[in-house]
Amino acid sequence: MNESKKIVSYTVQVKHRYLLNGLAWIVAGIFLIIPFKIFTMMSTVCIIATLYLKTMDFRKNKEEADEMAEANMNAAMARTLMVGEIILVVFAMVVGNIMVDYMGLKLNIAAYITPGLLIFLGLLDFLVGLFFKQEEQ
User: How far apart are CA 68 and CA 24, in angstroms?
Assistant: First the structure.
């Protein structure tokens, strides 16, 4: 069978769109925290990889989601939303209340906004893919 005619299964699409893409976002965010040029360049490579993984959705030869896959995706997204809310609340409490108020920690928050956002968004994408795989089993 010709490689260009190969139909990409919905499970593989989810793996690319969420699992691998989430990992690439997380790695990009971690690389941005490290203040060396090589890590900034590696972060750029990771972001380019995420763009490639996201554009893979525009393939013509892909399997459409059936009702069960859609139900599993909805359940995975619902679980991810719950976990994401918990992470944000815990992070806000730890950074806002404990580290700043009680420990007197002085942070340059602006330097960590972009890496933190990339890591958080990557974690959400990764969790959707992970929870989808759990629902499929």
Answer: 28
- Joined tokens for residue 118: 């990339």
Residue 24 corresponds to which tokens in the numbers above? 């690439």
Please tell me the pTM assigned to this model.
0.81
Alpha-carbon distance of 102 to 124, in angstroms, equals 30
Cβ atoms 16, 56 nearer than 8 A: yes
* Cβ neighbours, 10 Å, residue 41: 11
Closest by alpha carbon to 133, among 48, 13, 38? 13
87: Cβ–Cβ under 8 A, 6 or more apart, which residues? 120, 123
DSSP label at residue 17: I
Backbone angles phi, psi at 75, to 5 degrees: -65, -40
Cα four-point dihedral sign 96, 97, 98, 104: positive
To 5 degrees, how large is the angle CA 120–CA 57–CA 70?
Answer: 75
Q: How far is CA 86 from the centre of its chain?
A: 16
Write out pLDDT tens, residues 83-108: 999 999 988 887 777 666 666 667 67
Please report how the helices 109-136 and 21-33 are oriented relative to each other, as an axis angle in degrees rounded to 10.
Answer: 160
